[in-house]
TrEMBL record:
Positions of transmembrane segments: 20-38, 50-69, 75-95
Source lineage: Bacteria, Pseudomonadati, Pseudomonadota, Gammaproteobacteria, Vibrionales
Keywords tagged on the record: Membrane, Transmembrane, Transmembrane helix
Domain of life assignment: Bacteria
Record-given protein name: Uncharacterized protein
Source organism (scientific name): Vibrio mangrovi
């Protein structure tokens, strides 16, 4: 589960380009990652792992680099990223 911290490597290279929205989302992702690692009640199933690890990681990368998806607008990609992380966060909180 420590792989959840892997997308935070982006901060080392892009921190000068961050605005307040990126810093806020990074803080929210960091809180999520710490809660995920400290919670030991999560079952170790590949589907559960992809939900708690894959979706939030992809949401973080998509929020930081919304221009990678040229089919949709940047605002739409950021909203979908927030929704993805928020759903995983609520599911994680409901385990407690």
């Amino acid at each position: 589960m420590e792989f959840v911290f892997l997308p935070l490597i982006i901060v080392l290279f892009q921190w000068r380009n961050f605005e307040s929205a990126e810093w806020g989302f990074t803080a929210f992702y960091l809180v999520y990652a710490v809660l995920l690692v400290t919670n030991s009640e999560i079952p170790t199933n590949s589907r559960i792992g992809s939900f708690y690890l894959g979706i939030p990681s992809a949401a973080y990368v998509t929020f930081i680099f919304p221009e990678l998806y040229t089919r949709y607008s940047e605002r739409a990609m950021r909203v979908l990223s927030v929704i993805g992380l928020l759903v995983a966060f609520v599911a994680l909180i409901s385990i407690f």
